[in-house]
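Why do we care about 3D structure at all? Because function follows from shape, and shape follows, mostly, from sequence. That is the central idea of this module. The next example makes it concrete: a single protein chain, its amino acid sequence, and then its structure expressed as tokens.
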Amino acid sequence: MTGAQRTLFLAAPRGFCAGVDRAIDIVDIALQVYGAPVYVRHEIVHNRHVVDELRGRGAVFVDELADVPPGAVVIFSAHGISPAVRREAKDRGLRALDATCPLVTKVHLEALRYAKQGYSIVLIGHRGHVEVEGTMGEAPDAIVLVESAADVEKLELPDPSKVAYITQTTLSVDDVRTIVEALKRRYPAVHEPAKADICYATQNRQDAVKELARRCGIVLVVGAPTSSNANRLVEVAATLGAKAHLIEAAEDIDAAWLTGDLGITAGASTPEDVVMACVKRVCELGDYRVEEFRLLEERVMFPLPAELLGAAKETGVAVGAVNERAAARVSGGEIRIRHH
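And the structure:
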């Protein structure tokens, strides 16, 4: 190869978050405890590599509970569900396990609390996203969805003094800030969550991609087209002037993109081995040295469902009380890149 060596900046944190770790572990353990098939409503997380691997082991992904045989084990995806879905599972005698991310559950509980207190609830999110559908199902008569500051200007709420807002967990931090500012101008008494609804992993990955965009003009985001948080990473990088590309796998990388220093990051549903394959492919296509930078350490872990832990104990399947992937990451068991 000719020319000066270029740098591939590898962002961290990147990839799997604690909620994704937990959801995948729930399917994995359920397959060990109950045997195949285990049914999953919607993709457990928005990543085809994860879904294909679990499907190969006996997970069956369905869009509707009507496709699940009576009495079967069904797992609700990390994005959350409405109470109506939960009731349907109970009425059909399904053995349900809830893999909803606890940070999504937090938003559901906020919606319920505000609705009981008589507030009009403004949900900031993307129409049609499964997380938004689940949240709106908690209080459908009280929640109105907005996707932009322009939507805020169109709102007609019954009591301007009793308005609260909640948000989808995987949005752009900057976009939400703009919409919230519009809400506060329109409804000065608006109530906001005690703690921001955008999840820690979404915030951290957006902060990391901002640093990538400052360091280099080309950013590759490894993630699925259906992944909200991966798409937001592309938008954040592009807003800062980088040429940002969303890729699902190493074979999606176009050699024509590699014209200088570049950065790689990954959405919260992307496996680390897929990221490493992309790093390897870039290094095959050009003379790159890999430099990892880490903005902070993530040490978040969520407990597994008690009913799954109980069933595992009864059947002799050895599991810890917290999700194994998160525990490995926190203890330093993640794959790390050796600096050249």
